[in-house]
């Protein structure tokens, strides 16, 4: 009898099941294409789902196809999922991310465009409905909505909203406040930043070519780590035309994650271990601590007293020098008047020169 060895793979069964579901979703969803070459203006390893396709010599991605008679929907995602909770740090921390993309939406009343975080199950339930999401699929979205739907509580047909597991936005902001129109056909640039430490999401929007705005259009507190605690998520951009011929194009897209380095964290000291190790030393050094404490206090008191004495002497010297000095000025000398008299004096001059002539 010949016995063949059976290979055993040391691979977690849950990862194997998740990978199988993802591969099945990829090959069961229609119109899927992979970007084999890295595009300079896009994140690498993109997967196109639904009606999404590269256009203009692969320089842009068209998410919806106006030639379809039925509602068109397209989705572009990163092939590799991300973990909102970083397992490389202890304690486990939620990661932060930043993304920005350039897009345009044609002047029709479609659903617009959305930035999405979805689970692996989303691939199995991708539909032609709004942004491809369906009921029961957990998702997070920042929608650039161009269709006014009263049933969803839309403020108008030109707003940005945040959706958490539902197309009813938890918070919205009017794009008209920026003097912009989402479905004008003009290129727009948007930035989305999530900070895991403050658990805050910020959305910015401007006309393409302008600098990143300082003030965000929309700010919302949310804990994505709590929302996606149990798994990986896919990041992508989605669009659906609804009952219109609306087309949405993406010209550039970048996405990056960041987390606090491990060396910035320190583990707290266990007080029980510290007590067990140093308990005996504390008992032996207790007497010395008391003596040193008394001497230190005495030295400080003497020094403080000497300092006060020096200050008092200095102030006393200043006070003595500033006292008023009395200067005695002698009285002015006076001259007493006296009696004066005048006396006639006779002066006789001999004129010898006259006698000499004779």
Question: Any key phrases for this structure?
Answer:
358 residues, alpha+beta, Jelly Rolls, 9-stranded antiparallel beta sheet, 7-stranded antiparallel beta sheet, 18 strands, elongated, disordered N terminus
Task: Estimate the global geometry from the Cα principal axes.
Answer: elongated
Stretches where pLDDT falls below 50 for ≥5 residues?
A: 1-31, 262-278
What is the CATH first-level class name of the domain at 42-150 and 158-261?
Mainly Beta
**C-alpha Rg (nearest Å):** 47 Å
What kind of oligomer do you see?
single chain
Q: What is the N-to-C succession of helices and strands? A: HEEEEEEEEEEHEEEEEEHEEHH
The average pLDDT is: 75
The number of distinct β-strands equals: 18
Distance between the termini: 197 Å
- Structural class given helices, strands, pairing? alpha+beta
What is the percentage of strand-forming residues?
A: 25-35%
CATH architecture of the domain at 42-150 and 158-261: Sandwich
Transmembrane segments: 291-319
GO molecular function: carbohydrate binding
Family: Belongs to the leguminous lectin family.
InterPro entries: ConA-like_dom_sf, Legume_lectin_dom, Leguminous_Lectin
């Amino acid at each position: 009898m010949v016995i063949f060895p059976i290979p055993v793979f040391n691979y977690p069964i849950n990862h194997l099941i998740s990978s199988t579901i993802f591969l099945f979703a990829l090959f069961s969803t229609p119109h899927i294409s992979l970007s084999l070459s890295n595009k300079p203006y896009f994140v690498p390893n993109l997967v196109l789902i639904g009606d999404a396709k590269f256009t203009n010599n692969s320089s842009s991605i068209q998410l919806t196809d106006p030639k379809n008679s039925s509602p068109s929907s397209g989705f572009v995602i990163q092939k590799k999922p991300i973990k909102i909770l970083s397992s490389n740090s202890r304690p486990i921390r939620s990661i932060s991310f930043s993304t920005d993309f350039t897009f345009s939406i044609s002047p029709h009343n479609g659903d617009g465009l959305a930035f999405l975080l979805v689970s692996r199950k989303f691939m199995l339930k991708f539909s032609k409905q709004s942004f491809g999401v369906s009921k029961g699929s957990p998702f997070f979205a920042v929608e650039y909505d161009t269709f006014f739907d009263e049933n969803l509580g839309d403020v108008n047909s030109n707003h940005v909203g945040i959706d958490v597991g539902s197309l009813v936005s938890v918070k919205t902001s009017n794009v008209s406040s920026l003097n912009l129109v989402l479905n004008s056909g003009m290129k727009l640039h948007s930035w989305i930043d999530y900070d895991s430490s403050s658990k805050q999401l910020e959305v910015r929007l401007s006309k393409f070519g302008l600098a990143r705005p300082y003030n965000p259009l929309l700010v919302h507190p949310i804990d994505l780590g709590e929302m996606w605690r149990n798994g990986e998520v896919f990041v992508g951009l989605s669009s659906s035309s609804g009952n219109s011929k609306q087309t949405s194009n993406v010209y550039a897209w970048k996405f990056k994650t960041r987390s606090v380095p491990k060396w910035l964290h320190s583990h707290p000291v266990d007080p029980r271990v510290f007590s067990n190790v140093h308990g005996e030393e504390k008992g032996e050094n207790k007497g010395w601590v008391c003596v040193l404490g008394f001497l230190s206090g005495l030295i400080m008191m003497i020094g403080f007293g000497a300092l006060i004495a020096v200050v008092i002497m200095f102030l006393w010297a200043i006070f003595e020098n500033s006292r008023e000095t009395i200067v005695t000025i002698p009285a002015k000398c006076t001259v007493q008047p006296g009696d004066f008299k005048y006396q006639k004096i006779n002066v006789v001059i001999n004129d010898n020169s006259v006698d000499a002539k004779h």
